[in-house]
């Protein structure tokens, strides 16, 4: 706005995309604006989005709810309901007084935070001083406290207008969804893998989920919890379809449970999953496989086994949780909304009591040769079923099998 | 203690190791106790360590400083100076009153937090009530507030004695150093790789650092900042030697800067580093290569390039920062103590202006064949120089070359 009446809007702050070159930045900001638009459409908000250097403005009927929706979009550092006014001291001061009126009470301290960018004629200090004096003059019994104010009003003079706001809803940060190419996440009913998927989505990766359906072996079943994880994760990329590829693991489990030696099952199983994920990734142009791998949480999660397992695919295996503590994973799962989906530990019906902690690569290669692991993986990848989720809900009816 | 005079000690809490089996738990607790012992020796504290179910107790002359030292050991959730007394209500109450006397003042609210484990005769509620009443009786003008107390005293009745404390120093958490096998981290002068190394050390991995010395090309030099990062990281595993393998990259840089096509240099360079790291890892029994890789931070950090780069080694490449935002990495670097080592961005003298964002695997393979990348890597790995750090300091004199 360059003149006219002050109007309420939502201001979106983005951070890291500032590190990029001008060309990349433009692409990222436009992707983020598109994603915000999809999120608002999914909620049924009529809106108009304007992108500026360092800020995105959204106009619409219910700024408070629009801000809440925008604050869940990847790439967004924070969203604020704000008054957009003229980029001069007078317009900004008037809007600041109006905002302060709603929340500033006698006995409260306040601070004015000012920014100025591309607007000549006054400094940010002068702007802050002008707004601060106007507030002191208008309101009785209030005082300035710049370090621990009870009330904080922010004012910005920018090329495209003046902005006044006094609340910030924190966003997830990260990079706009879809700017980083596709990856495929091994999604389970557990706590870890949904967090791994979310972290990579937040880093801009287009996501594809894959789940290994245990059939009568259950252990890695596509039950209610997997679908719930899948659906909840889709709520973070509103308006976009998120696909879950369900792979039938039953034939493979039939084969490995018939083997004499049970202790290599976990390594064989994980190698098989990576192999199938690798086939499907290449079919669909995904560049990496994402897992919820930790170190040392279960007996088979050793570095030695990880080396043998990784070698089952030529694609990079991304393990965003590899450096996390369990309580950090749980904290993330709670804030993402996937934690309540998994109240307990999920057992695996195929895992042996004493899995090997250092499966020798040669032994594994020999067993895989014997059972034709490559052929099994190719057939499993060919049998895939797709379950699409969108806006937090699964589009296909849930299967009737159990969760365990 | 089972009787005798109350005594001051340091109590160490550990968390995640409780997830393990009894056998693994014993191994982890004893590794953590050993590491705490090494840390205290490095600081010159005479001490005695006792390990119990769920708690480690340290006796020594300066509990406050011992607690601070113990609170930097991986696996430790928190450390508290505490009074160790008899495991009965009377002994605990007397110790709690004595502790409260030092910090509880008229007008303050307080809360008693009680735990009981393996001690019969009273419940934790009864213990809390007894201590609370005694405090109310002894101190004037104080009141109970269980939700937001000004002062909080914790009391525990355990098989081995009563514990009373009112302060907690948070520890790094994670798993005891050395319980997870060895990994090798590509350490640079930057912000990211030291954080990646620290996170994997915190997850229990024995660490080895490797740095690519650019020689006259400078870009990846083992300058003051690399040594500083290396030394600071060694301060997190006191009493243990941390080795930095310095590889001479100059011959490789000579070759790739002579190539007509500059845009594949970043991919060639990273593949070369992984190749050399892989050779040295296998020589020394390390199971994985750790990098500070992010997504989308620099032009060559694309998923497509990551796939081509990863294929240079058969070892798993662990990228603990792959799901991190830049500000999260910076926050970690600050708390670890490696951030101030790197005030600015570090440029690379060899990187082209426009690096390829999707280097074709076949082109890379052809160039590597032409330049004999395998032979170059083997010679580079053979020329390695070792710089050992211990207790936060480098044991070898720093080289005189520049930092850039």
Automatic annotation (TrEMBL), chains A, B:
Pathway, per record: Cofactor biosynthesis; thiamine diphosphate biosynthesis
Main location: cytoplasm
Membrane-crossing residue ranges in chain numbering: none
Domain THUMP residues, every copy: 64-168
Superkingdom as given in the UniProt entry: Archaea
Cellular compartments per GO CC: cytosol
Top enzyme class: transferase
Catalysed reaction equations from the record: [ThiS sulfur-carrier protein]-C-terminal Gly-Gly-AMP + S-sulfanyl-L-cysteinyl-[cysteine desulfurase] + AH2 = [ThiS sulfur-carrier protein]-C-terminal-Gly-aminoethanethioate + L-cysteinyl-[cysteine desulfurase] + A + AMP + 2 H(+); [ThiI sulfur-carrier protein]-S-sulfanyl-L-cysteine + a uridine in tRNA + 2 reduced [2Fe-2S]-[ferredoxin] + ATP + H(+) = [ThiI sulfur-carrier protein]-L-cysteine + a 4-thiouridine in tRNA + 2 oxidized [2Fe-2S]-[ferredoxin] + AMP + diphosphate
Presence of keyword RNA-binding: yes
GO-annotated molecular function: ATP binding; CCA tRNA nucleotidyltransferase activity; tRNA binding; tRNA-uracil-4 sulfurtransferase activity
Compartment(s): Cytoplasm
The keyword Heme is annotated on this UniProt entry: no
Binding, ATP: 186-187, 270, 292, 301
Function: Catalyzes the ATP-dependent transfer of a sulfur to tRNA to produce 4-thiouridine in position 8 of tRNAs, which functions as a near-UV photosensor. Also catalyzes the transfer of sulfur to the sulfur carrier protein ThiS, forming ThiS-thiocarboxylate. This is a step in the synthesis of thiazole, in the thiamine biosynthesis pathway. The sulfur is donated as persulfide by IscS.
Protein name as it appears in the record: Probable tRNA sulfurtransferase
Organism: Methanoculleus receptaculi
């Amino acid at each position: 706005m360059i003149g006219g009446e002050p109007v309420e809007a939502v201001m979106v702050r983005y951070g890291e995309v500032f590190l990029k070159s001008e060309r990349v930045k433009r692409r990222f900001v436009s992707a983020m604006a598109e994603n915000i638009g999809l999120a608002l459409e999914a909620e049924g908000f009529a809106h108009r989005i304007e992108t500026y250097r360092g800020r995105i403005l959204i106009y619409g009927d219910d700024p408070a709810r629009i801000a809440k929706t925008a604050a869940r979009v990847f790439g967004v550092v924070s969203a604020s309901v704000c008054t957009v006014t003229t980029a001069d001291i007078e317009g900004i001061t008037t809007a600041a007084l109006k905002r302060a009126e709603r929340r500033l009470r006698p006995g409260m301290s306040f601070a004015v935070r000012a920014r100025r960018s591309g607007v000549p004629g006054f400094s940010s200090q002068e702007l802050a001083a002008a707004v601060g004096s106007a507030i002191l003059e208008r309101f009785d019994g209030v005082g300035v406290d710049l370090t621990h104010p009870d009330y904080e009003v922010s004012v910005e003079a920018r090329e495209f207008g003046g902005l006044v706001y006094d609340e910030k809803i924190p966003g997830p940060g990260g990079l706009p969804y879809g700017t980083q190419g596709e990856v495929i996440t091994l999604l389970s009913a557990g706590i870890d893998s949904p967090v791994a998927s979310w972290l990579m989505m937040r880093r801009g990766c287009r996501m594809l989920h894959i789940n290994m359906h245990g059939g009568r072996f259950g252990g890695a079943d596509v039950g209610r919890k997997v679908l719930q994880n899948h659906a909840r994760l889709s709520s973070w990329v509103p308006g976009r379809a998120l696909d879950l590829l369900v792979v039938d693991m039953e034939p493979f489990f039939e084969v490995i449970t018939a083997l004499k030696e049970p202790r290599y099952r976990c390594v064989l199983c994980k190698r098989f999953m990576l192999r199938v994920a690798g086939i499907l990734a290449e079919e669909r142009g995904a560049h990496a496989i994402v897992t919820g791998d930790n170190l040392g949480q279960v007996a088979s999660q050793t570095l030695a086994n990880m080396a043998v397992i990784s070698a089952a695919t030529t694609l990079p295996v991304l393990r965003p949780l590899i450096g996390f503590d369990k309580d950090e994973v749980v904290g993330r799962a709670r804030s993402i909304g996937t934690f309540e989906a998994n109240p307990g530990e999920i057992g695996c019906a195929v895992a042996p009591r004493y899995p090997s902690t250092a499966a020798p690569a040669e032994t594994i290669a020999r067993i895989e040769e014997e059972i034709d692991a490559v052929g099994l993986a190719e057939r499993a990848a060919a049998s895939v079923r797709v379950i699409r989720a969108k806006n937090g809900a699964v589009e296909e009816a849930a299967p009737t099998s159990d969760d365990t």
